[in-house]
Amino acid sequence: MENRSLVTIAEHSKEKILYLLEMAKQFENNPNRKILDGKVVATLFFEPSTRTRLSFETAVNRLGGRVIGFSDASTTSSSKGETLKDTIMMVSNYADLIIMRHHLEGAARYASEVAPIPIINAGDGANQHPSQTMLDLYSIQKTQGTLENLNIFLVGDLKYGRTVHSLLMAMRHFNPTFHFIAPDELKMPEEYKIYCNENNIKYVEHTDFTEDIIADADILYMTRVQRERFTDLMEYERVKNVYILRNKMLEKTRPNLRILHPLPRVNEIAYDVDDNEKAYYFQQARNGLFARQAIICDVLGITLDDIKE
Amino acid sequence: MENRSLVTIAEHSKEKILYLLEMAKQFENNPNRKILDGKVVATLFFEPSTRTRLSFETAVNRLGGRVIGFSDASTTSSSKGETLKDTIMMVSNYADLIIMRHHLEGAARYASEVAPIPIINAGDGANQHPSQTMLDLYSIQKTQGTLENLNIFLVGDLKYGRTVHSLLMAMRHFNPTFHFIAPDELKMPEEYKIYCNENNIKYVEHTDFTEDIIADADILYMTRVQRERFTDLMEYERVKNVYILRNKMLEKTRPNLRILHPLPRVNEIAYDVDDNEKAYYFQQARNGLFARQAIICDVLGITLDDIKE
Amino acid sequence: MENRSLVTIAEHSKEKILYLLEMAKQFENNPNRKILDGKVVATLFFEPSTRTRLSFETAVNRLGGRVIGFSDASTTSSSKGETLKDTIMMVSNYADLIIMRHHLEGAARYASEVAPIPIINAGDGANQHPSQTMLDLYSIQKTQGTLENLNIFLVGDLKYGRTVHSLLMAMRHFNPTFHFIAPDELKMPEEYKIYCNENNIKYVEHTDFTEDIIADADILYMTRVQRERFTDLMEYERVKNVYILRNKMLEKTRPNLRILHPLPRVNEIAYDVDDNEKAYYFQQARNGLFARQAIICDVLGITLDDIKE
Predict the structure, then answer these.
(1) Reaction catalysed by this chain (chains A, B, C) (predicted)?
(2) Is the previous residue joined to B255 through a cis bond, with omega within 30 degrees of 0?
(3) A 94-153 residues with CB < 8 A to C
(4) CATH architecture observed for domain C14-128+287-307
């Protein structure tokens, strides 16, 4: 049988992405279904991530499945020296699907190669986080009515930001124009600029973050400058306050502009933005529920036809 | 829509309290119902409390709902600097109800003001713990046949004891006589004595804890002298052994006397009391299941009529 | 009512063991049933054990029951000084069954004496772990077609290894021949050799672990040399690499030989053994699901007749 694991969104064709978004739309119409009745899903969070875990666990529970797992590896057999392979083999005996987060890049790929059941990558180090990308795409499509020909501004930590890298790659199918707004220390890495060139993705780089620069944005994708990425905390303190979106910066922006953020935020979006109708980050998080229900069903072999009501 | 959150029992009228107690009684008759089928309840314990969490989670599970959440905030986004508002907004996307415990007073109130879904306060610092009060009231009503005109003795830590303060306020509707038995260091605070005076609640203060003093008690409410409340551990060591209830102290007490304790106890009730038929603290804990089922249903808009069989 | 707790497999007769194995077989045919609908099972892991916990929780979920509990006692009331009795009494108010793991020997026995609901011992210190023994027996019976007259080789840490002690006692009904293979520091304790003599169990002791010695084994039961058992870490480092099973050692073994291991392993089975058809440890872990479903049903009074389809 085909292993239907989802390790990276880069493996998905344009058609597959649009298909999953259509599935997510069905789940937004009705997220409560009994389609996973009798299924056990393991959420293995070797690295904690409450938001992602709760979103996936809600997705499973609303579909009638049951959840087992752990939210922190410190008390697991891994700490007794067990290999990832053995842990995955063990859990494969119990569950029908493993959703895993790991601090090591490549962990999800490896797990998908040894496991007899599907794996969903819920984040592997700085590498991939495909369900986040699916909910970003769903949020863009829903708010803009299309994924095609959009001006997408990525702001903040473009060097370590896993979500912006994945979004960039997934958007290659849809003729976007990207604007990269970041301080020098956190610039978009060369490899992704090469990727853009190879895939005919237009991009412009900025180091300023001003009202004028974002005037023609359709999507403003803000990211958190994560303390844990810095070895020099002085540098972090200097940088973290530079790229802050404030409500008055939004006055001249397009009416269709929507502001996204993978959350959690620290201070990169001022609280006065929350009441602006262009703020969309909390609804975006809600879309994660539907996008994840679509992903879960897909890796388990449940089709759009199965869920249409 | 009206926000039906439960932040403090002080907001409830006498009628509302009696209504919830009647609901709890229905659940004691049958705690297993499918009335929350399709609902997801988030238990967010920013501060650990196994007892309260397990009681709430049992309540949800026996009603057919599903539980997501965390039992300890140390691995959540809060530790990455996320605000309470953002955490609550995020979880509101997934769950139909949030049950939260937090170390800060006022946290539940604040959450109820920002959340689009109901909040149940499962304890906010030294402030409120309304579901504990409801199970205390249910236990008193069940064992005494009434809530009216009772002699209620509160023993131990009356200064920091959240449960005794809430019980005192909730009893204002029922013409109680309170006896406050505490060492000087842990006396009932002035503000609550003023509250008693303003609400025509009779009270007597004692510093001794003897057989004679408790002779006419209907309810003896013991509390734990919590080490974590003391800055001076020497003081704690001196005080903790003073207010211990022993079985021989119960000989001359009323037949209808019942001993309550919010649990966990350390040593303030000697183990030889456990087999005395006046000991009621374990059954009291069991009543928490029914009281919490009533509270959960009420905040979700499920009425007594909906659950009557 | 009879307390149906499972504290140790030593209490079970031959007939009871064979009955539970027959039940497990029924669950292997179909592990997904609604037989625990409306039941709440508490998994109280005072000591972490992810594998055992996930196995039990899967067993409950696939039978339609609901799970509450904790995976680590560090944030529970135990850390506030609550006694085990009080914790057990509290949880008994909520759950229909307690599955508990504790670092203290005798904890499960004590819990079964105070609790009004059944207890399943999921490991108490170095003492007992009966569900592990049931899955070992199930794995032996399934792979050998019988439990009678087998050559069983126990390898590694026979001094502290709880699983080998329990297996040895459970096999007394089935006329086994045991081979104990261990370094001097980790030899089978005298008390178990006396037990063998008293129960007419044949055994041979070895300090070498070679191809020749295991030539007539039906079951090779490998165990982990656990670092946490050693006070002298130098001694651990010396011993841990001595008893390693490698694929080339299996060439002259019997065709029916199967290799068991309670898992997690560290390095006592080389990875090249995993693809050998005699490796059975991952399937063994899977059998844990069915064995535990049988145990759970049995302590709850559900019979083989109830589950036969």
Answers:
(1) carbamoyl phosphate + L-aspartate = N-carbamoyl-L-aspartate + phosphate + H(+)
(2) no
(3) 94-95
(4) 3-Layer(aba) Sandwich (3.40)
